[in-house]
Here is the input.
Amino acid sequence: MEEEKVKAAEEEETWSKETVPKVIDLREMNNAGNRLVAALSIPRYRHVREINLEFAQDIEDRHLELLKTKCLGSLQDLESLNLNGCQKISDKGIEIISSTCPELKVFSIYWNVRVTDIGIQHLVKNCKHIIDLNLSGCKNLLDKSLQLIADNYQELESLNLTRCVKLTDGGLQKILIKCSSLRSLNLYALSGFTDEAYKKISLLAHLKFLDLCGAQNLSDEGLACIAKCKNLVSLNLTWCVRITDVGVMAIAEGCSSLEFLSLFGIVGVTDKCLEVLSRFCSNTLTTLDVNGCVGIKNYLIHYISDLISSH
Here is the structure.
């Protein structure tokens, strides 16, 4: 009899593990707000860990309010929330949803121009465990948001600030000084920063991924400081127009684990930097983009390509 009870309990546990979903994926779906409320009203979704609403249609602040009033218990274990492209969500929506998800670790709200520093203030107040934050395209964020992030998320591992065009050196420096655990930093299409901030990227000892595409003010001196990030695996220098061989050679000598490097559109680099790259990075480099680098000769490109394809 006892054995039967144990077996029944084991079967129930197995069934529970197999049938209790951990992910709700409503990407690009219509009527996503009502669907989400309906799903989370079902007991089996009580311990959902991830919700993906990327480019979902018809998701608004009022739906998040409904979640708070009707499904609060279902969001207590939520660790990942993707609101990318949900442009009807405002600071109020972030206040509501963040107050219901205390265990949130990953938050993404790409391409939302309604979110301001107020929304970030609610986020850092309510969600203390964020390690992955994507604010790409949130064009109305100011340096205050970076100050809030730096003060509250010092264990942050990934930060995407693509096209957050109102940010300045002062704000970025707060992040670089305090968020020393960063492994991924995306500063794509941010032309306003200068070497004053770029030099402090050298403080990120664990950094592996760095995107500086369009960093028009980055100089060889700034890049030489970034070369102190010994663990860099991926570096995007596309359209960093002030860079020359000097900066790239510093990267080659300092970042010997580099696997991806883009020099696309940099007219100031020549064969000289490729020779140094081949000497220091040929064992690790798998992708090298030199399109538009008019100072580089074809024969050396083929030589580097042969080295890359040989491993």
Summary: The longest helix spans residues 2-19.
